[in-house]
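User: Can you model how FE2/S2 (inorganic) cluster sits in this protein?
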Amino acid sequence: MRGFAAAPQPVEDADHGGSSGGSSMIEKKGITLRGVPLYLDMQATTPMDPRVIDAMLPFMTEQFGNPHSRTHLYGWESEEAVEDARAKIARLIGADPKEIIFTSGATESNNTAIKGVAMYYKDKKRHVITTQTEHKCVLDSCRWLQQRGWDVTYLPVRPDGMLDMSVLEAAIRPDTALVSVMAVNNEIGVVQPISEIGALCRSKGVFFHTDGAQAVGKLPLDVNASKIDLLSLSGHKIYGPKGVGALYVRRRPRVRMEPLMSGGGQERGLRSGTVPTPLVVGLGAACEVAARDMQSDLAHVRRLEERLRTGITSQLQGVMLNGPSDLALRYPGNLNLSFAYVEGESLIMGLKEIAVSSGSACTSASLEPSYVLRALGVEEELAHTSIRYGMGRFTTDAEVDRAIDMTVSHVNKLREMSPLWEMVQEGVDIKSIQWAQH
Ligand SMILES: Cc1ncc(COP(=O)(O)O)c(C=O)c1O
Ligand code: FES
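Assistant: Here's the modeled complex, given as structure tokens:
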């Protein structure tokens, strides 16, 4: 991680001549690690930027007032800080501050947008459209509606993860209330054609919601230019705190919705509950920094992605990219690769010294590999050996180089033990083999 003291420092392992003396063993969940793993999982969460922590601290100490207290200075200064944060979030996405609702994160924003809009318009419109590759919280919110009598269309995507505009257009009906399509996919980084979707939805009189958890603060996004009616964002994906997010709700043309939370009527009645000043201030600071640093952050992850991808593919055959290869269509901080001729579980277990995410089911309770990769048509074996490398603002060249070394040496080691790999080396066409059924 570069530059900042608060960012977690990787512990170099002895094999790579590290200087930080990280030979101490860590025992966790039955796995022995040689030190703190190298963190390349920025889609899961990001470390807080020290500038964000600095902004938050006063609101966890002296300035602890309830922002809704109207009768004293403690309340007034908290309210001022909350409104300042709201303006910073609005500025990042080209919105009016009045259109920003604070929530606990993108999960709540997505639930509120989808269920809230569908319930408000339920008498006239009972159809919702989304895609098969959305985040679980979007898919589950849609299932929730289905169980209560709504009709939901889950659109397929192309093999690179992109939504086909003609498929979307054909799915829109007179009773469609909402289209929900994420801006950037969390597993494969594909960037959906948000402006085209917005224009189509506006022309058909359908509201357009986008889950911007992986996009806001990382790629330029403007709610008016892209005709977005509702947008979800999350603090902890953009170097801000966990447990806070926001929902943008358009005022003109006005989007109406039922609140999911009953109570004191805060946030224009759409989200009752005391607004958590320190978290909201942190989100505001994260958005301000993101707006300022977006171009340099992007250039940084573009360079790292190129280094990582070419570093791995120049040394290994049989590596498949999941998602678009065109970097105009993929957020470069996300590189998702599948490794042929290795066994999924051994690959994941062997790479425990790098904190990455996997499309394999080894890491979860389900036995199915990633539904996102399956929706792209990735073969089951390759879905099992997929690794998502997530890079960000604080990722360094040295970390990427270690990830390349570890990946290459581990994949080579597994392939040396693989009879399948031996056959491939000998020129046998694996697909032509009749495997014994059992
Ligand atoms: C695309 C996407 N949507 C929603 C979420 C949920 O965000 P939060 O953790 O803020 O609830 C995530 C995070 O995993 C995500 O990647
Ligand atoms: S690799 Fe573990 S379940 Fe597929």
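A couple of observations from the model: The two ends are 49 Å apart (CA to CA). The pocket of pyridoxal-5'-phosphate (ligand 1) is lined by residues 105-107, 135, 137, 182, 186, 211, 213-214, 234, 245 (CB under 6 Å).
User: Helpful, thanks.
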